Amino acid sequence: MLSGCLLYFLVILAMHNVHAVLPPRVDTLTRLDRNSLIEHYFHLGFDYSEILGFLLLCHRIQISLRQLKRILSSNGLFRRRAYSSPPQVITAVERELRGTGSLLGYRQMHQRLRCQYGFTVDRESVRLILQSLDPDGVEQRSRRRLLRRQYHSKGPNYIRHIDGYDKLKPYGFCVHGAIDGYSRRIMWLEVGRSNNNPRLIASYFLACVKELVGVPRIIRGDQGTQNVNVAAIQRFFPYDDQDDFAGEKSFLYGRSVSNQRIEAWLGFLRRSDTEWWINFFQDLKDQGLYNETDLFQVECLLFCFMPVLQDELRRVVQEWNLHKIRPSSNESSPPGRPETLYFLPELTGTSSYLNNIKAIDIDVAEDVCCESPDTDVPDTFAELAQIIMDEKGLEMPSSPQSALNLYLELLSSIEDI
């Protein structure tokens, strides 16, 4: 039955001239007559009160609860009677299991059968059908474990994944990282003022190239202008002509959700580190100590916290690269320390796929495509902050608390100028 409150609500609305603005989805239904609308909302799974609400608010059709039940009955629409044919339901479930429906539990499958197929079926029947047709999937979902595509990498430097991390971007900090697909070694993890500057992203890449004097066989990154210089450099360097992934194929564009190695690791980064920073900066906002529309506060926050955050990220990388990864069923994801797996691939029966690069080629790429991270910092504010620090005997911070103290001191001094 309709609750007393909802009945009262509908009565009050009916007494007034209600002109609801139709949502796009509802607006397409205006050509249907009253009974067709009722049938449509019934098959979407709405209950009596919701159907009456849609009719009144979106279509300006006013009927009583008794009238609604009579219309449903005359059209053979029942929730607990006239169930759909079991063979039809089973066939539909089998069809869904061949696609994205394989990820659905019985509740979501029940909803899909009602909405997409117009079936009348109870949840328990759907649960039993899934248990019979897809017992392995039911077991995996009950354990919150899903089968995913097997990741494959032949050895270190076979493929490297790069991506930006923008969870701290609301506070001005943009993190960018890279991970080796085989060893899971973090190749770089840098924080700057932007992840959209292709010259800055290329500088992270070239710094790693200089350190290793080589590039990976393949780099995978998101589509977007931020990666165009990295792609150009990767494709510019000379390769073995016999390599199927030489030239254009040495950099692969793809969606962020498909870049699973770096996406998974950035999830770990949030759980293990940046969640704290997000809460820290949000607390500053809540306390009125930071306003993203105040230019001085924005620049002061970046000046004080950027080096502290970068040091923190380097510690995270070091700890990760030295920790032991547990065994898994995927042979392309061997257990061990990322640092060892990367630099000593022979211990796991493989070899490095690093392509050695001449220093002159690295210099050319750097001159044409790169920008130093230091050039991304406004000199004017840094000079002003340094003058204040020299006058007051202040030093650059080494911890979040000392960075906060410097931040507050600089803002106070600037306000007094």
UniProtKB/TrEMBL annotation:
One family name in Pfam for this protein: rva_4
Signal sequence coordinates: 1-20
Domain Integrase core: 151-332
InterPro entries associated with the record: Integrase_dom_put (IPR058913)
Keyword terms, alphabetized: Signal
Protein name: Integrase core domain-containing protein
